[in-house]
Amino acid sequence: MVVLIVLLATFALSILIRRIRSQPVNYRVCGRIALSAMFLFAGISHFLLADGMVKMLPQFLPFRYPIVYVTGLIEIAFSLGFLLPKYFQLTGILAIAFLIAVFPSNVYAALNAVDFGGNVAGPIYLLFRVPMQVFLIVWVWVSSDTVDELNKREIFAVLIREIDGI
């Protein structure tokens, strides 16, 4: 939930700053700035909250702490990649694959009511987490130029309408 707040707050702040500075608003650029902030926040959290993150991984999995630290480094790398024009498309593709790859840990944590984040609510948390994961994947897809221009405009318009409705 907190990552979603970081994403949306940074997106809104990016738009506001561009408007205050009388600059044209490029929603994809603002979207990438927001993704960068979100992945930086999440990546740093892997180091500061490692004990909680480790609980999200099954006990039988070896090297749970190193997995948490490596995924944190990956997220920090994504935060940089979304800011570098030469790399934001590749970063988007890798970030989508990453979001899909780590999703089973969210399912495991919710099914086992892990005392970390919203997972403590148990399986009911998945009613929020699944749509949020899809939302994040679509946000990455649209913001990182991994779709053609026409589809981007249509999908981003839907995202903007959804954000305005919150």
The gist of it:
This protein is an all-alpha fold and 166 residues long. The chain contains seven helices and no strands.
Describe this structure in words.
The two termini are 14 Å apart. The protein is globular and about 50 Å long. It has helices at residues 2-20, 27-48, 50-55, 64-81, 88-111, 126-143, 149-165. With 166 residues, it is mainly alpha-helical. The mean pLDDT is 88. It has one domain (2-165). Helix 1 packs antiparallel against helix 2 and helix 2 packs across helix 6 (126-143).
Distance between the termini: 14 Å
Determine the strand fraction and express it as a percent band.
Answer: under 5%
Series of secondary-structure elements, N-terminal to C-terminal? HHHHHHH
Structural class: mainly alpha
Helix content: over 70%
For the record, the count of structural domains works out to 1
Main sheet: strands, sense, barrel: none
User: Which spans have pLDDT < 50 for at least 5 consecutive residues?
Assistant: none
> Using DSSP, what is the number of strands?
0
Shape: globular
List keywords for this structure.
166 residues, mainly alpha, 7 helices, 75% helix
Write the layout of secondary structure elements.
Blueprint: H1 2-20, H2 27-48, H3 50-55, H4 64-81, H5 88-111, H6 126-143, H7 149-165
